[in-house]
């Protein structure tokens, strides 16, 4: 019986991918992909974040800033970008700033899943 291959993106961690290969009703192998090993997805993450920040806060995000903050959780990264770009006061983060960063993170995830 020929094998079946499934490719998944982890539901909570957008940078984690894995393949599951099933042959004759039992698992033969699992391959985990940390971003950049098998699939280079950072350009897509950048594009999704750039679009999300533009839509939510009308901020133009440059690649240098995005890659400088690479590895941070998305909502934290969004809040840092808001501070760097002057949208949020560095010394006085408000609930509005936190809500904006969470909205950016949510929108970025939606956009990335479509890419």
Blueprint of the fold:
Blueprint: E1 4-9, E2 16-23, E3 26-34, H1 42-57, H2 63-68, H3 74-84, H4 95-114
Antiparallel strand pairs: 1-2, 2-3
Description:
- With 115 residues, the chain is an alpha+beta fold.
- The protein has two domains: 4-34, no CATH class; 42-114, Orthogonal Bundle (DNA polymerase, domain 1), CATH 1.10.150.
- It contains four helices and three strands, in the order βββαααα.
- The chain has helices at 42-57, 63-68, 74-84, 95-114; strands at residues 4-9, 16-23, 26-34.
- It has a three-stranded antiparallel sheet with strand order 1-2-3, with no helix packed on it.
- The protein starts with a strand and ends with a helix.
Q: Could you give a quick summary of the protein structure above?
A:
With 115 residues, this protein is α+β, with helices and mostly antiparallel strands.
Rg over CA atoms, rounded to whole Å, is 18 Å
Output mean pLDDT.
82
Main beta sheet: strand number and arrangement?
3 strands, antiparallel
Low-confidence segments, ≥5 residues, pLDDT <50?
none
């Amino acid at each position: 019986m020929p094998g079946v291959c499934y490719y998944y993106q982890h539901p909570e961690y957008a940078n984690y991918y894995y393949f599951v290969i099933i042959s004759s009703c039992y698992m033969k192998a699992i391959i985990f992909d940390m971003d950049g090993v098998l699939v280079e997805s950072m350009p897509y993450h950048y594009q999704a974040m750039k679009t999300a920040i533009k839509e939510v806060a009308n901020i133009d995000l440059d690649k240098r800033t995005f890659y400088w903050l690479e590895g941070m959780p998305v909502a934290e990264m969004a809040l840092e970008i808001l501070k760097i770009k002057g949208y949020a006061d560095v010394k006085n983060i408000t609930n509005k700033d936190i809500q904006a960063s969470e909205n950016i993170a949510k929108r970025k995830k939606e956009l990335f899943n479509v890419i």
